[in-house]
Amino acid sequence: MVRLQHQVDHLPEQLLQGRYRLLIDYLIGLEALVPDAIDESSRSIYAAAYEQPGAVRASNAW
Q1: What dihedral do alpha carbons 6, 11, 12, 18 form, nearest 10°?
Q2: What does the pLDDT read at residue 15?
Q3: Is 29 exposed, middle or buried (0-12, 13-18, 19+ CB in 10 A)?
Q4: Residue 49 contacts by C-beta under 8 Å, 6 or more apart in sequence?
Q5: Which residues have CB under 8 Å from 55's CB, separation 6+?
Q6: What is the chain's mean pLDDT, rounded?
Q7: Contacts of 45 (CB under 8 A, 6+ apart)
Q8: What single string gives the DSSP state of each residue in 1-62?
Q9: Of 27, 31, 9, which is closest to residue 19 (Cα–Cα)?
C-alpha cells in the first residue's frame, strides 16, 4: 500500500505536510545500524531538506 500511495501525484506531499520529522525519525530507526549516532541537529537538517518542494517526488523517483 505504501508504494501505491507514493505513485499518486502530490499525495505523498499532502500526507507528509508538517510530518517530515516523523518520517525521518522512523526511517532512521528502521534503517540505521546505530540510530542514536544521528543527532537531533542532523535529523532536523534532513527533515528540512525533505520538506523542500519537489524533494519527495525526487526521492520517490530515485
Answers
A1: -170
A2: 73
A3: exposed
A4: 55
A5: 49
A6: 82
A7: none
A8: -HHHHTTSTTHHHHHHTT-HHHHHHHHHHHH-SSGGGS-HHHHHHHHHHHTSTTHHHHHHH-
A9: 27
Tens-digit pLDDT profile for residues 19-36? 889 889 998 999 999 999
Please give the pLDDT value at position 29: 94
Residue 51: C-alpha distances to residues 1, 33, 34, 37 (Å): 22, 24, 24, 22
Q: Which residue in this structure is represented by grid cell 537531533?
A: 40
Q: What does each C-alpha distance from 45 to 2, 3, 5, 39 come to in angstroms?
A: 24, 25, 25, 10
